[in-house]
Amino acid sequence: MDQKLSPVSKFFLIVIFVILYAPIFFLVFYSFNSGGTMYDFEGFTLEWYQELFSDTRLLIIVLNTLVVALLSALIATIIGVIGAIGIHSVKKRSRKNAILSLNNVLIVSPDVIMGASFLILFTIAGYQLGFYSVLLSHIAFSVPIVVLMVLPKLYEMSPTLVDAAKDLGANSWEVVTKVILPFISPGIMAGFFMALTYSLDDFAVTFFVTGNGFSTLSVEIYSLARRGVSLNINALSTLLFLFTIVLVVVYYFINQRLKTNGTGGRK
Amino acid sequence: MNQKVTRQLYMLPYTLWMIFFVIAPIVLVVYYSFLDINGDFSLANYEKFFTPKYLKMALSSFWYSFLITLFSLLIAYPTALLLTRTKHKQLWLLLIIVPSWINLLLKAYAFIGIFGTYGITNRFLEAIGIGTQQILFTDFSFIFVAVYIFIPFMILPIFNSLNQLNPALIDAANDLGASKWTTFRRVIFPLTMEGVKSGCQVVFIPALSLFMLTRLIAGNRVITLGTAIEQHFLVTQDWGMGSTIAVFLILIMFLFMALTGKRKRGV
């Protein structure tokens, strides 16, 4: 089908790809600049990477970010999967739609509003801003994403599967763990990964609820960038870019594998 | 009876999440919007919102969002259309999405280097004889970077709806003598309206609330509703006024979602 694309179309696509990737490679390129600026490339150096790895404060922030992302994705996945199974079992259509609309509120609402309203919430509750407020907020905005990823899988599942399991003497715990969960596992994985990336990527919500002592990578980059160019950030972005690529590849392969497994015996 | 109890038990964590992080925050924002700076109940914030200063800001925020959405659509639609015609289209789509997984702040930071006074763009302008221009901290840079950031989010839903389009319909249009342009205008575009709508939804609303870009790229020249909310919450500590703007942003969000039609829910 590739031949159907005219040279003009191909050129257009290439331009789009170049524009999309140029800023990223621009950052990577200048992370090796010994000149210390983002415009004069003086010579190759790994100085910025060395500086990055000796900056314990920044490393702790990276660790914080990862911990928040993994924990929030994990907890959000658990709540979301349970919630999705619950929503799936709601029979009344109007009630189900009401729940789903509420579920979607956090997905469509802008992060600034989420951040501001969570800030009010934590302040009114007298909750200290810091690690836990950030973690709770990240769980909060990840839950609906997990629900949306898992729900279609539940609807794909034939109800006869559950009936068959019950007829064969499975109790409700076994029905959930041995029948439902394995069937919806691709949805769960997708939900977990989405939650992970949302958490890693989030800036605005964290910025509102982070308080003074605690910082995540996005917030740190923001405050560094406001002060101007520093090639540490470039070195950091190179590493993050590589990390993202690894994540994408892992996600892609897990997805492929689950897809082929899923269609093998179950349909 | 037993089943009902189990179901409610399932729903418990999810319901708690919904009460604390969906319903309570909205209620709190609305409640705070009625408090003046001293914490007394009043309508002063709403009165203030309808003064020319705030209305002008809201309008300009709308205008920027509109432009950002328009340009994203103009670039994303042809890209998505061409992508569906390539070989390995899922792989190409993945490559389009990867940049959206790179931290937003890093991309904004890259543009500080690209658009800066001595940046690569100005070098280029210098070389072709236009001379150095002020690019950073202008409307142009703000819109360009915002469009850059939102393009993948616009491409994705459009690509999906194009992908679901039955190719037989296009063949039928060709057989019936429609030109390429007519086929596009009368068949392809109307049938992918759903994707265009959800693309606009995921761009327009966040574009209203972008605040880190206005600070980093537009140098406080552009004030969006999001910037105003952030300013009121974190700088001037006038949570009442911030909440009032947030209430309007929420209303606009619902209005916009109603205008662009309901998204498919549930199954």
Give the gist of this structure:
The complex is a heterodimer of chains A (267) and B (267). Chain A is 80% helix and 0% strand. Chain A contains eleven helices and no strands.
**CATH H-tier superfamily of chain A:** MetI-like
Q: State the CATH topology of chain A.
A: MetI-like fold
Please trace the helix and strand order of chain A, writing H or E for each element: HHHHHHHHHHH
Alpha plus pi helix count of chain A: 11
The chain pair with the largest interface is: A-B, 88 and 80 residues
Share in helix of chain B: over 70%
Radius of gyration of chain A, whole Å: 23 Å
Percentage of residues in DSSP E strands of chain A: under 5%
What is the highest CATH level, the class of chain A? Answer: Mainly Alpha
How would you sum up the major sheet of chain A?
Answer: none
CATH uppermost class of the domain at 53-225 in chain B: Mainly Alpha
Q: What spatial form of chain B do the alpha-carbon principal axes imply?
A: globular
- Low-confidence stretches of chain B are 263-267
Query: What is the correct CATH architecture of chain A?
Result: Orthogonal Bundle
Radius of gyration of chain B: 23 Å
Relative strand content of chain B: under 5%
Structure commentary:
The complex is a heterodimer of chains A (267) and B (267). Chain A is mainly α and 267 residues long. Helices cover 80% and strands 0% of the residues of chain A. Chain A is built from eleven helices and no strands. Chain B has helices spanning 2-33, 44-49, 52-83, 89-101, 104-115, 120-127, 139-164, 167-175, 180-191, 193-209, 212-216, 225-235, 239-259. In chain B, helix 3 packs antiparallel against helix 10 (193-209), helix 10 (193-209) runs antiparallel to helix 13 and helix 12 (225-235) packs antiparallel against helix 13 (239-259). Chain B starts with a helix and ends in an 8-residue tail after the last helix. Chain B contains 13 helices and no strands. The model of chain B is unreliable at 263-267 (pLDDT under 50). With 267 residues, chain B is mainly α. The radius of gyration of chain B is 23 Å and the shape is globular. Chain B has a domain at 53-225: MetI-like (MetI-like fold, Orthogonal Bundle). The interface between A and B is large, with 88 and 80 residues.
